[in-house]
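PROTEIN DATA CARD
Card holder: O-acetyl-ADP-ribose deacetylase
Chain length: 169
Origin: Streptomyces monashensis
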Amino acid sequence: MTTLTLVQGDITRQSADAIVNAANSSLLGGGGVDGAIHRRGGPAILEECRALRASRYRNGLPTGRAVATTAGALDARWVIHTVGPVYSAGEDRSELLASCYRESLRVADELGARTVAFPAVSTGVYRWPMEDAARIAVETVRNTATAVEEVRFVLFDDRAYEAFARQLG
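Structure generated from the sequence above:
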């Protein structure tokens, strides 16, 4: 049984087997969580991301998929990069967001990770409404078979923490 926990704070300060990065499809860094992970983790992460772009993901990592790299200087063994969907009021992209969590757990299982720290994927510049993102994240993790022992949702602010806390109820 996987334990779900909540932490308010900076995901780059977490100690876990794997830290999930809300990446953009280029895998080459960006803003928000992505930029913070690349800055704190150092150049080793970007180096592996460039190698992935040169080989398996020439056109970038597709939305809803996940891939792992080293964690560089982070207090983790791996970073699992996943590309969340941009929110659209006119098109239901919920399955793509759920896929980010399922695929990240699949990669974590392949790696043998037992603790995984997730951000609130797609809730920053991709504008996914926090309450809905929390519902999708918690339901998906609860309903995904995994050997991961602890999934830790690391939420940056009070609003995100409270939305996830309501879902864990």
